[in-house]
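Handoff note, outgoing to incoming analyst
You'll be picking up this chain. Sequence as last confirmed:
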Amino acid sequence: MTRDQRLILTIAILASFVAFLDSSVINVALPAIRDELGGGLSTQQWVVDAYLITLGSLILLAGSLSDVFGRIVILRIGLIAFGVTSVLIALAPTAELMIVLRGFQGVAGALLVPSSLALIMSTFRGPAQARAIGQWTAWTSAAFIVGPVLGGIFVDVLSWRLVFAINVVPIAATLWMLVVLGQKDERNRETRIDYLGAVLGIVGLGGPVFALIEQGNYGWGSPAILVPLIVGLISLVAFVLWQRRAPQPMLPLALFRERNFSMGNIATIFIYGALALGGFIVVVYLQEVAGYAATFAALAFLPSSIGIILLSSYFGRLSGKYGPRIFMTVGPLLGGIGYVTFLSMQESVNYFTQVLPGVVLFSVGLSMTVAPLTSAILGAISARQAGIGSAVNNAVSRIAGLITVALVGVIVVGPLTVDNFHRVIIVTAALFFAGAVVSFVGIRNPVHAEAESTDVATPRA
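Most recent structure output, in case you need it:
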């Protein structure tokens, strides 16, 4: 690599690391936030979902903004905004202000990941590009190990507020590297920004999510619930209709004509919805009901992060040889079975007998799923569409998590108890199983993989 290529790769890794770190650390801090700032389960849901609403709505728009204003400009704005909102969240005196700031942090987060990937795509070519993306994936995956552990230690030893201050150091280092790089931006003035689509997307997601979270406080018959629900659903319909006629839509609907792309994204809804729902409820339950310290609750899913790093490339290679269908079917099945074992948890939880076996099953299942799912979705479209295809799948996974976390208030009746926890676990497992069914029925292996599979299954003379 040249000096500039090394700098750009490091910048892209650090910028994405910040966004992934924040999303991996938040569940550990939720009980401590509730204890200090007040509020119940709905407050914890909002702390997660306020970020996901703006992030999921605007991540597609960020690509257009990068084209118009320049990738480095948008990346710099995203980094500064993410750093400022992180500090303000750490200082927030009330839960309401914190939730608002989390929404602004989601806007900043939406600018980071697409811009950093775009820098890699525009700087590297051919095999070097594949290696750079591999390094980017490996290092950003480390955020899912480092985040919860650091967060748990900060909550137990120092303060939950410092969990958000973790972002400041890598952000400052990345901004300094951008100055050292001194590279001029490339801009595409012909790109049109779909502002209307962005507004419709935010309202369309925000309205139903508000209704799902707050229905326990107001009741389904209240105008405070019905109005945002109806307005949100109308906005979602309007969003789809607008995307069909917009000159340069945020969401190119033509991509969904490809079977594996559309079915892969449907599977993503179930699988990533289950990931967000299960991760949210287990970490909160271990702290609030089982009495685990934040650090130990954070370490509960550490094997899954290690499993992804160690096994995902292996299953990715197997998927390339035999096709993604079998792995996208068996993986979510194992994940769902892993969660079913959590039904043995009561108020007193033994980690080694009631948690670890399920986490190991889930870890293998998730490792078996992630790379084949990505290859199935991106392999269904042309290389020229890979950027927008990846952005769409990223947005779908965030929105799936947004919706399932919002559903916690519908599933849990009253305070978090053993029975309520078991209900959420059953829904989580059912989502994994649904992802497996969609994958088995909907995904088609590429022709070369089908041929390879036949060759392996048929003895040669």
